[in-house]
């Protein structure tokens, strides 16, 4: 039986709110409050939702860059939910991340050679001459000249810096790469180039991706499956075709209605949600989306729905189903 390469079950990450002289805990921020998904070898999962929904925190959580409060994280059949420091160091080689901001994610005091070479040194990979050859190879793969290895980050544009960030993620031969909004800080024309680059690298290196994004138009072109998050929880999952052609959850439909149309003659019904996203410090009872939901029913404010399989691999957390 083939097991998923990465499996996350009911992941929760709660941050304490401390006040007073003795730092007494007076409340909690429920940043991630029950996220579950699985990722197979060579697949791409999109984790989407509006700003503040907890998708980046979830990504850092299953990479164990933030300790989870509870839940189960399994990588290649191994439970890594409570792995110790030495186990995590070996895990870092297998699971890498591309950060959102290409300006602050690169050390300005390091050359590209050091940025790409240090991870190899830490994990004991490509010693001596092999390391220099590996760095030149990675730079060519991401569309940069090998001569750039001697330059510093401030000598590059935003798109070039993100290419360096991608090369750094690939430096230690990972199996899973998490892209934390890898194109949101770039111009639209550069976004297309980076997305095409990621697709090409995935095929060549047989990578598995988790792409975190708030723009559903971006994940449409790269993701096999999509998980939609709202206020720390997954409210709908399915293939990108199912979610784009037949979205079930009212929140998913509102997100899709916000995608700009490519032709001025096209029209669509824009779904405007009323109110603001509730605070993760004090989430509403029942369904977390019910205060803004245009289709809420009796009981939505009292009972919390769970993800239910509605067929075809699509799951939705809504009492309508």
Write up what this structure looks like.
By secondary structure, the chain is α/β, with parallel strands linked by helices. The protein has one domain (6-260, 269-312): P-loop containing nucleotide triphosphate hydrolases (Rossmann fold, 3-Layer(aba) Sandwich), CATH 3.40.50. Helix content is 28%, strand content 23%. The protein is built from nine helices and twelve strands. It has helices at residues 55-62, 85-94, 112-122, 129-141, 158-170, 188-205, 216-219, 240-245, 250-257, and strands spanning 6-19, 24-39, 44-48, 70-75, 78-79, 95-98, 176-180, 208-213, 225-230, 233-239, 308-309, 315-316. The strands form two sheets. The chain has an eight-stranded mixed beta sheet, with helices on both faces. The radius of gyration is 21 Å and the shape is globular. The relative contact order is 0.14.
* Count of beta strands: 12
Task: Specify the CATH architecture.
Answer: 3-Layer(aba) Sandwich
Mean pLDDT metric: 91
Within the CATH hierarchy, at the fold level, what is the topology?
A: Rossmann fold
State the share of residues found in helices, binned by percent.
Answer: 25-40%
| Fourth-level CATH superfamily | P-loop containing nucleotide triphosphate hydrolases
Please tell me the total number of domains.
1
| Rg estimate, integer Å | 21 Å
Structural class: alpha/beta
The top level CATH class name: Alpha Beta
Please give the alpha-carbon distance between the first and last residues. 31 Å
User: Strands across the major sheet, in which order?
Assistant: 6-7-8-3-9-10-12-11
Unreliable runs: none
By DSSP (H or I, 4+ residues per run), the number of helices equals 9
* Global morphology: globular
Strand content: 15-25%
């Amino acid at each position: 039986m083939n097991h998923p390469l990465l499996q996350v079950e009911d992941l929760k990450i709660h941050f304490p709110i401390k006040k007073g002289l003795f730092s007494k805990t007076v409340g909690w921020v429920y940043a991630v409050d029950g996220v579950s998904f699985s990722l197979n070898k060579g697949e791409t999962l999109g984790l989407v939702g509006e700003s503040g929904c907890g998708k980046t925190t979830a990504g850092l959580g299953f990479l164990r860059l933030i300790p989870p409060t509870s839940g189960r994280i399994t990588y290649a059949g191994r439970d890594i939910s409570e792995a110790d420091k030495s186990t995590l160091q070996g895990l870092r080689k297998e699971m890498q991340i591309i950060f959102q901001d290409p300006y602050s994610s690169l050390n300005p005091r390091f050359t590209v050679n050091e940025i790409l070479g240090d991870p190899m040194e830490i994990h004991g990979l490509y010693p001596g001459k092999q390391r220099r050859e590996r760095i030149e190879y990675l730079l060519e793969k991401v569309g940069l000249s090998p001569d750039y290895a001697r330059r510093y980050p401030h000598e590059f544009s935003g798109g070039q810096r993100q290419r360096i960030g991608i090369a750094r993620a690939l430096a230690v031969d990972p199996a899973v790469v998490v892209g934390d909004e890898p194109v949101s800080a770039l111009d639209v024309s550069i976004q297309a180039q980076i997305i095409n680059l990621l697709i090409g690298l995935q095929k060549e290196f047989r990578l598995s991706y988790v792409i975190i994004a708030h723009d559903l138009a971006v994940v449409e072109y790269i993701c096999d499956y999509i998980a939609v998050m709202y206020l720390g929880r997954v409210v709908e999952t399915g293939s990108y075709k199912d979610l784009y052609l037949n979205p079930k959850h009212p929140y998913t439909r509102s997100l899709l209605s916000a995608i700009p149309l490519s032709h001025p003659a096209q029209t669509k019904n824009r779904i405007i949600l009323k109110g603001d996203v509730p605070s993760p410090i004090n989430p509403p009872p029942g369904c977390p989306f019910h205060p803004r939901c245009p289709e809420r029913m009796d009981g939505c404010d009292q009972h919390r729905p769970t993800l239910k399989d509605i067929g075809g691999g699509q799951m939705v957390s809504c009492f309508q189903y």
